[in-house]
Write a structure and sequence with these properties.
Radius of gyration: 23 Å
Strand content: 15-25%
Number of helices: 15
CATH class of the largest domain: Alpha Beta
Helix content: 25-40%
Strand order of the largest sheet: 12-13-16-17-11-18-10-19
CATH architecture of the largest domain: 3-Layer(aba) Sandwich
CATH topology of the largest domain: Rossmann fold
Distance between the termini: 55 Å
Number of strands: 19
Largest sheet: 8 strands, mixed
CATH superfamily of the largest domain: Response regulator
Shape: globular
Length: 491
């Protein structure tokens, strides 16, 4: 038995003006068939799982490219062609495979190619028409008909933050093994819920809905149930949440359950979404409870394709007269270089952030002392360790500590601050550039977490997004996006 594995992953914010190019993959994670020789991260955990399970079974494993880039704008065509061609060339050169397992993102867009994952899967299917093809996707994906047509199995992460990557990899491997052995005959169907938003799965009604999906998956004849949450900041035709069901040789059951669960999810739309606080309202809440307050600077999350250099929240905190707080990570390679040249202990006049474009706000002129500089640090996302590049700790008057780095990455863990010397236990507030991935680790040190609807490249104003390519109406831009069906039924 021959198993072929590979990863190509980036999440495309089509509104971002910074292209994703080869440099983005090179600085984050790029391995040519050797990724499983490194410790796992979120998007390589599956490769480790698949190789280990295949080795136990005595299978031959062909490991191809692993390429991961921090989200930004559309991938340049030359970059996409080079990376996808490498995977397909490796597949052709090894003579094909019995089982092909790919860890892709699901929301990658390249110049002239809106559905990169569908493109890769279709090309793999053309090379290996008889192979069992399975793909693991981030739940912020655009689930498309082309993906379903070209693959046998699709499994999404079910948790946000994503702490179930290993479990999903195990699930996909076992389904692929059973399918290739003829033990099961997977049939897939999805349902468009007509919702564009973000959904945190760790509490409340959304957590209950994930449990509801798991219960349906345990029914006879059902192989897998997962929800593609969609990636909101992408002007593509298939944007939005879609419910996916895989059954064992029962296509009508897959269609029925996908619609039932999808309709159920739509009914819960108000309860599964969160209200995010405008900056002034969020700052009014600071200090109303004892202990550390965590502010999520949601509008400038580089993990969603924002630049990572926005100053809106920091400007407001300074104008508010706040002291004794920490904030980061600010992506500003120029400031990092100046601090490296000046050295630890230097006192400098710096112009921080606001350099990428209008969404980033204005630069802030400040005087700061360079407290520490570290290269090679990482922060945990689940069990994986994510790189941080070169990190600089700046201190302003009033015990204000800022983290600046030269690699666009969101804050995942308190250790992003702690390991360079900032003690969060002594702070009144920490502002993190992140959407949700910080939530689990930071909830261990604070029970006062505020998600701030700050301006920026990932501002959570989903009803206002200019989604020109989506053909069907969606909530929250339209209060009743299924009204056209009601009219059709009445007619």
């Amino acid at each position: 038995m021959k198993l072929f594995i590979a990863t190509l992953s980036t999440e495309t914010n089509t509104f971002c003006t910074m292209p994703t190019a080869m440099s983005g993959f090179e600085e984050y994670f790029l391995r040519h068939g050797t990724a499983t020789q490194d410790p796992p991260n979120l998007m390589t955990e599956a490769l480790h799982v698949w190789r280990e399970k295949a080795n136990v079974l005595g299978w031959q494993v062909i490991e191809s490219l692993t390429a991961i880039a921090e989200p930004a704008g559309p991938t340049t065509r030359s970059c996409y062609d080079a990376l996808s061609d490498e995977i397909l060339s490796d597949l052709a050169e090894c003579g094909g495979a019995d089982i092909i397992l790919l860890q892709l993102h699901g929301a990658m867009v390249a110049e002239q190619i809106e559905d990169c994952e569908g493109d890769i899967l279709a090309r793999a299917r053309a090379l290996c028409p008889d192979a069992t093809i399975g793909v693991s996707l981030d739940l912020h994906s655009h689930l498309t008909e082309k993906m379903l047509e070209a693959s046998d199995l699709i499994v999404h992460f079910r948790e946000y933050p994503h702490d179930d990557a290993t479990a999903c990899a195990v699930e996909l491997f076992e389904l692929a093994r059973r399918s290739h052995a003829g033990e099961i005959t997977p049939q897939m169907a999805f349902y468009d819920t007509r919702m564009v938003n973000l959904y945190l799965t760790k509490a409340g009604v959304m957590k209950e809905f994930v449990s509801e999906m798991a219960a349906v998956q345990n029914r006879p004849g059902v192989l897998s149930v997962s929800l593609s949450h969609g990636f909101p900041w992408a002007d593509v035709e298939d944007v939005g949440a879609r419910m996916l069901v895989i059954t064992d040789d029962q296509p009508q059951l897959a269609v029925q359950l996908a619609e039932e669960l999808g309709r159920r999810f739509f009914e819960l739309r108000e309860k599964v979404t969160t209200r995010y606080l405008p900056i002034p309202e969020a700052l009014d809440h600071v200090g109303t409870r004892s202990g550390l307050c965590v502010l999520a600077d949601m509008g400038d999350n580089s993990g969603g394709g924002a630049p990572g250099d926005a100053t809106h929240l920091l400007q407001a905190m300074l104008a508010h007269g706040m002291t004794n707080f920490a904030s980061g990570l600010f992506w500003d390679p120029g400031v990092v270089r100046i601090c490296q040249d000046a050295g630890i202990g230097s006192r400098l006049a710096l112009r921080l952030g606001g350099k990428t474009g209008v969404v980033s706000g204005d630069p802030i002129d400040l005087t700061a002392r360079v407290m520490n500089i570290e290269t090679g640090l990482g922060q945990h996302l689940g069990t994986g360790l994510e790189p941080m590049g070169t990190v600089v700790w700046l201190r302003l008057e009033g015990e204000i500590d800022l983290l600046v780095n030269d690699l666009r990455v969101q804050v995942y863990h308190p250790e992003a601050f702690e390991q360079i010397g900032i003690r969060l236990a002594g702070k009144s507030v920490v502002a993190v550039k992140s959407l949700f991935h910080f939530y689990g680790p930071f909830s261990q040190i604070s029970d006062h977490i505020l998600q701030v609807a700050s301006p920026g490249g990932t501002q959570p104003a989903f009803g206002d997004l200019a989604l020109t390519k989506r053909k069907l109406p969606f909530w929250p831009a339209v209060a009743q996006p299924f009204a056209d069906e009601c009219l059709a039924d009445a007619g």
